[in-house]
Structures are given as structure tokens and as C-alpha cells.
Amino acid sequence: MSRKSRTQTVAAPAATLLPGLVVGSHGRHCVVETPDGQRRICHPRGKRNQAVVGDQVLWLPAAPGQGDEGSIEKVQPRRNLLYRQDEIRTKSFAANIDQVLILIAAEPVFSESQLTRALIATHEAGIVPIVALNKSDLAQPFAQAWERLAPYRAALDAEGVPHYQVLGLNLTQPSATQAALLQELLAGKATLVLGPSGSGKSTLINLLIPQARAATGEISQALNSGRHTTTTTTWYWLDAQRRTALIDSPGFQEFGLHHIPPTALARYMPDVGQHAQGCKFYNCTHLHEPGCAVLAQVGQGISAQRHRLYAELFAELSQPTHYG
């Protein structure tokens, strides 16, 4: 037998790549769900195959006798990716999502800067944002917080359609109307829940998915994350048909936007950007130039506080960065 024919005889068949959805992530470890609902721990093969929750991937199971884990061989093209970037690192939240539910609370007092940053990131990623103010049972703090959201509730586009959907919730004892509205908003979509600690994210998850705590424990145990459970991002199905999903992400204190050029900032603050076309200069910064249509709207179509946030972010993003 020739060397060529011997080689052909012993050659092993190529392994078949299997499709999957990343439903859990902790560091370099992922939980991949197969089309029939089975889940397996997988590790990315190389930096190019780093996956986040929501990614569609192609993966390989381990060879017989080498355990029941697998390897992610390819991350399929994403339709979107929500992430934040500070001066040091980039943190991805989730990919291939339909909307982001930004959950804030009447108490503790929410940061309008954090809210604005999250809204800008969702607009930049082409994802629909929803703002939900929790703890409507706290009458006075809720009324004050609701008033702070007035510019977001009042912001309309040229056709009179609100730029932002803003709703009030009491997640500890939701009314039938609130529960129905939540179900309607979430139905048939993949929704990332984003918000700072204390906003009520865990309450929301446990309200909509009673088995969430057990599911989180299983994923955390599988990923060997132990006490670092809160750093794990998890995808939950809300229905047996696996059409409606809720993605729980860790709370955040900072939200860097260093991936956005300062000159693009107005584009992602729609109540500011819709007036920018009327500026006298094409490269107007909307901070001090004569003939600026944005400045002319401050205190009218644009709240003074929103413009102050724009100016602060413009200054921040204009600073040189040094990535490590």
C-alpha cells in the first residue's frame, strides 16, 4: 500500500460544528444552549472567538473521554452589540438583542448621568431603549424622580412621537395594569435589563421568572463562579416556545462612552440631534458657536440639564485616552 493510500485510510472525518446560543457568561467561560434546549460549558478557542451572551456560535463538543465541555469555534456575525468602554477596558453586556430596559429607582436616587450614558450607548448600538422608574409605592421620592424624568418624557421627534418610552413601576406589588404592560413590552423580544445596584433588577427577574434563582445557581455552579455570581450575565427564557427572553446583567457604577467620538454625541441624544441640522456651521459643537440651532432650543425643546450633560460628555470624550 502506498504512503498516499495509507494516509487516506487513517484520516479521521472532519468534526461537525454545532449551532448554539450563548446563554451565560463569566470571564472566558460560556454556557451554550443547543437548538433542542440542552446546555453545555464551552470555552472560546482563541481571542477571535470571545463570545458574549446572545451570540449565535458554532461549537465542538470535547472528544470522547475528555469530559462533557466544548469549545466555541466561531462567533456568527452580530446584528448589534451593547457595550461600554472606559479609558482602560471594554465591557460587553449582550449581543443580538431587541431592546434594553433601563431600570432605575426612586430610591436610591438615580444618576441622570448614568441614565444618559446608557441611553446614548443603546442609540449608538441601534437598540430600542425603555426607561422604567421603580418604587412607585414611595409617593414623594417617586414624584420627585418622575419630575426629573420630565425632559425624557417630553422629548418628541418631528412627528410628535416620543424619543423615549418611560414608565413607572412598583415591582414589589405590581398592579394588573403594570404586569400586563410588562408582558406586552417583552413579548417576542430579547430584552436586556440594565441598571445600577438597588434599582430592583433581581425583583424584576424573580417576578417574571420564578425559577431564575435556581437557574442562576446552576449556571454559577457550572461556571465555578462561586461568590462571583453577580458578575455573571444570564439569558432567561420567559416562555416554553423560547421566543421571549430576558437578559440579566451585573449592576454598574460607571458607564464609559470612549468608543463614541465627541462629534457624534449629538446624534445619539435625539432631543439634541434633531435640531443640529439647522446650525450655521456644519462642524458645530453646539457649545458656543454663533448661529447654533441647538443652543437656540436650550430651555425650550431641549432642557438645560440635558444640554449640560451633553457639554460634560463632549468635554470628557474630547480628552486624549491611553488604553493599556
Task: Describe this structure as you would to a colleague.
The protein is an alpha/beta fold and 324 residues long. It has helices at 3-10, 112-125, 139-148, 150-154, 176-186, 201-208, 212-223, 270-273, 293-297, 304-317, and strands at 18-26, 29-33, 39-44, 56-61, 70-75, 81-85, 90-95, 99-105, 128-134, 165-168, 190-194, 233-237, 245-248. It has ten helices and 13 strands. The strands form two sheets. It has a five-stranded mixed barrel with strand order 1-2-3-5-4. Strand 12 (233-237) and strand 13 (245-248) form a beta hairpin. The chain is globular, with a radius of gyration of 23 Å. Residues 1-13 and 225-230 have low confidence and may be disordered.
What's the story with the biggest beta sheet?
Answer: 5 strands, mixed, barrel
Work out the radius of gyration: 23 Å
Helix-strand makeup class = alpha/beta
Gross morphology? globular
What count of helical segments does DSSP give?
A: 10
- What order do the strands of the largest sheet run in, or round the barrel if closed? 1-2-3-5-4
Enumerate the spans where pLDDT stays under 50 for 5 or more consecutive residues.
1-13, 225-230
